[in-house]
Amino acid sequence: MLKIFLGLFLTIVHLFANSSESSESFPDLTMTWVGISSLFIFVIGYYFIAAEDKYHVDKAKPALFIGTFMFMLIGLYYVLNDLDINILSNDMNHLILEIAGIFFFLYVAMTYIETLISMGVFDRLKYNLISKGYTYRKLFWITGFLAFFISPVADNLTTALILSTVLITIDRNKKEFLVPGAINIVVAANAGGAWSPFGDITTLMVWTAGKGDFTDFFYLFPSAFLGFLVTAILLSSFVPNSKPQFDASKEKKPELMTGATVVIALGILTIILAVISHQVFHFPAMWGMLFGLALLKLYTIRIIKKYNSPLNIFHAIAKIENNTLLFFFGILAAVGALYFIGWLHLAVVVYEPDMLGASWANIAVGFLSAFVDNVPVMSAVLKANPQMGLDQWMLVTLTAGIGGSLISFGSAAGVGVMGKMAGIYTFASHMKYAWTVFLGYVVSVAIWYFQYEMLGIKHY
């Protein structure tokens, strides 16, 4: 399937390369040796990322290599051709700022999660769920619904990280529960983030670009929810209906470390601060996250002195999945290089009426975002600014948000869960059930069509 989509992508690139013009000040390098070689490096690197299980090479290694190497080649091309290197430098500074925002957002979110783990919060949550006698299937549904309704507020990545931690603490070995459960959480978190202006980075980009009012995104709720529900129903049939091995008489109720409830409250406050810093102050969202981390560090000083608590934030930081952070850095840098070269601008040609047209192009964006990452794809669409009405801007918001669920590493939520459940939730394990996600995607698009085209909803 990967080969088919890559082949389709390369075919489109070949057909429309000569008809595309860059909208940026930097030159179009697509048909130069650096453009062709960079695309080749990107495809090969993605192959090794996708084949992580086959070659036993951590996905961060090829991602980091292609992300840094592609820009080194671009720099070499500029020097050899006596081009203005300041253009490249300025573009890289913008890219680094974007990557840093995601990088430090992840860093703080993972620190909070590891801190809560060390304080026994997830062990208590696990105990509370299993002690009620819930089956694996019921736990599957509970975590899925929690992911869908928490992600619009807490963002899809943080939600997926938290609930995947719950899954792995329930049972570390039962893959027939863990893999469908992980996919369910990723699909639910991405779907939940698609109908909230700050539930996903792409929805935030569309909102701040003025393509829709705050309330316009709420009209995507039926599409997002029903698509998730279809996938969840299909996945649930593969989850065993047995109960986790648990004897309440033998299991001691886990004790929460002193200050755990305050740390939970600080985590919620940190998310709120991230939203405020971005929406009100127009700072990067990571600024509010880092301020929340500062509050956490200050609070640990108090409980260590007052209660002689064993809590150590640096121990929590040491447990962070650094390969996940490096993967994000590498893959976002690689996609940034493709954008700088000019490859991502070529996709805009398909919006022309004599090509695919807006509806089919926006549906295709969902598939492209699964392979390339929805953030740069949405950025390319917004910068190209095709002439579309509100209905089409809502469609591309929906497809870019839920399309990342089609592949395990197609979204921030998926990558986060891959890092949290390493060796369990992988590209290969996801693809076994990818058809269920695809059917959910089709249902979401069909519901959008029913709302906007058949019912003629116009909420301008």
List the helices and strands and how they pair.
Elements: H1 2-16, H2 33-50, H3 52-55, H4 60-80, H5 85-118, H6 121-130, H7 136-154, H8 156-170, H9 175-194, H10 201-208, H11 221-236, H12 260-279, H13 285-307, H14 313-318, H15 322-341, H16 358-372, H17 374-384, H18 390-403, H19 412-420, H20 427-431, H21 434-454
Protein name: Sodium:proton antiporter, NhaD family
Organism: Arcobacter defluvii
Keywords: Antiport, Ion transport, Membrane, Sodium, Sodium transport, Transmembrane, Transmembrane helix, Transport
Describe this protein's structure.
The structure is a single chain. It contains 21 helices and no strands. It has 460 residues and is mainly alpha-helical. The chain has helices at 2-16, 33-50, 52-55, 60-80, 85-118, 121-130, 136-154, 156-170, 175-194, 201-208, 221-236, 260-279, 285-307, 313-318, 322-341, 358-372, 374-384, 390-403, 412-420, 427-431, 434-454. Mean pLDDT is 83; it is low at 1-24. The two termini are 39 Å apart. One of its GO terms (cellular component) is membrane.
Structural class: mainly alpha
Main pleated-sheet profile? none
Radius of gyration, Cα only, in angstroms?
22 Å
Q: How many distinct helices?
A: 21
Share of residues in strands: under 5%
Multimeric state:
single chain
pLDDT average, as an integer?
Answer: 83
Number of strands: 0
Taking pLDDT < 50 over at least 5 consecutive residues as the criterion, the unreliable ranges are 1-24
The helicity comes to over 70%
The general outline is globular
Q: Give the CA-CA distance, first to last residue.
A: 39 Å
Order of helices and strands: HHHHHHHHHHHHHHHHHHHHH
